[in-house]
Amino acid sequence: MTFDRDAAVDRAMLVFWRQGYASTTPQGLADALSIRKGSLYNTFESKHNLFTLTLRRYGQMRAPTLRRLREEQGPVHEVLRSSLAELTGAGSHRMGCFAVNSVSELAGQDEGVTRVAESLFTDIEDASRVALERGRTRGEYTGGPDADEQARSFLTAVIGLSVLCKAGTPPDRLDQIIESTLRSM
Fold it and tell me: Which fold has domain 5-56?
């Protein structure tokens, strides 16, 4: 059986996502990846390097959602709604957004992690701006703040809903918050 590095990064991401960086031990990672601790270091150099790889992988996994925000031709409200749920885990899991969790845990301690997460946050804001501009052009969103301000609000909602999701807020309450957020745009 050959070692699949990409699959290992995906498995490690779930470990970090569930436990956080500080609570994840190198031995725990090695066990989750079914390798020896020495192999973990030989393959990934360090726990920190593996963590950074998992955070980048997480951003890549969000690409289809961001592409849908930019390109979906259906009702913008529905695209925004489903994207908020997907980006935060609302209704599907209670782990929140891995990038939000990571920045929350390591804020001010790890500039590299902050840069990777900020890149994803910028992509989320940019993609939502495109969707909101499309909604304005079609007359779905009229009046109120401009698309730039709405996109910042969308990003803020992603971050806040991620925290609420991780805190165990019931799915029906998360749905109410999503709807309220979208009505305010």
Answer: Arc Repressor Mutant, subunit A (1.10.10)
